[in-house]
């Protein structure tokens, strides 16, 4: 009985390996599969029948260019993923879960993936899903092992360390990691900087030498991760922070302005506040002007003065053009 059980396990492992091969490439010949699996073509045919019995649509074609091909069926059968593929899938699903499109479906897929994966991979999924927030759309690639190291540190509440550029130098940072945040362009880590005694956000693609330490910490009261990072990206890194009251709904303005360019907060029905950082007050003023909505400057005071200067300049530029004739009302 013990030998039979071992044979069964061997057959199962071989069939799963066969399924993985069929999912990797469009078509395989019987000799190619037999060579990969170290079995005879007859055993390959038997294993193909086992897959068909499980609901996989495996098509066999004859002649030159023929072979075995996994085709879509009426129902979606299970997929085989190795460890790296599973982690990459989780990262992609988290990206979708944080966006406006298919977010609920991505979260459901994450839940299913978490339920069926082996313990070692389920822990990786939970580390990511519990440590990532999002604003915006697609983002620059980051090494999966770096994301996983930071996600585990967030989950396990242990300190993290990494080297990070500061001006012309690269300095080692010690932090209490809180959340990973995905913007439309980059991954960020929101963490409490132990050397600066304050909350900071760090671009993950700029980190080197990332490691999780063994020292645990007690979580502090933290700001909203996505909002904090977005405000930093759109405003705090610039020398000027401009605030406007815009006569349009927050949803309308968010559709016009990239998330990395400005933070848009609803201020009632049909009114919103726009916060944007800039090195050039005239430039940010023109960006808000071309949105096409009525607005007023809230901060800083010099931005209001620039409005008058630019208004005079525009009036002067158009002085030589005769005004349009008025039409008489009937």
DSSP helical segment count: 11
Structural class: alpha+beta
Uncertain spans: 98-103
Estimate percent helicity. Answer: 40-55%
Record field, number of beta strands: 12
Report the portion of residues in β strands.
15-25%
> What would you report as the Rg, rounded to the nearest angstrom?
29 Å
How many individual domains?
A: 3
Order of helices and strands: HHHEEHHHEHEEEEEHEHEEHEH
* Average pLDDT, all residues: 81
Question: What would a concise description of this structure say?
Answer:
Keywords: DNA-binding, Transcription, Transcription regulation. The protein has eleven helices and twelve strands.
Keywords:
Arc Repressor Mutant, subunit A; Alpha-Beta Plaits; 4-stranded antiparallel sheet; 43% helix; elongated
Explain what this protein looks like in three dimensions:
- The structure is a single chain.
- By secondary structure, the protein is α+β, with helices and mostly antiparallel strands.
- The protein has three domains: 61 residues, Arc Repressor Mutant, subunit A, CATH 1.10.10; 138 residues, no CATH class; 79 residues, Malonyl-CoA ACP transacylase, ACP-binding (Alpha-Beta Plaits, 2-Layer Sandwich).
- Strands 3, 4, 5, 6, 7 and 8 form a six-stranded mixed sheet that branches. A four-stranded antiparallel sheet has the order 10-11-9-12.
- InterPro entries: CBASS_pafABC_assoc_protein, DeoR_HTH, HTH_11, PafC-like, Tscrpt_reg_HTH_DeoR_CS, WH-like_DNA-bd_sf, WH_DNA-bd_sf, WYL_dom.
- Keywords: DNA-binding, Transcription, Transcription regulation.
- Pfam families: HTH_11, WYL.
- GO terms for molecular function: DNA binding; DNA-binding transcription factor activity.
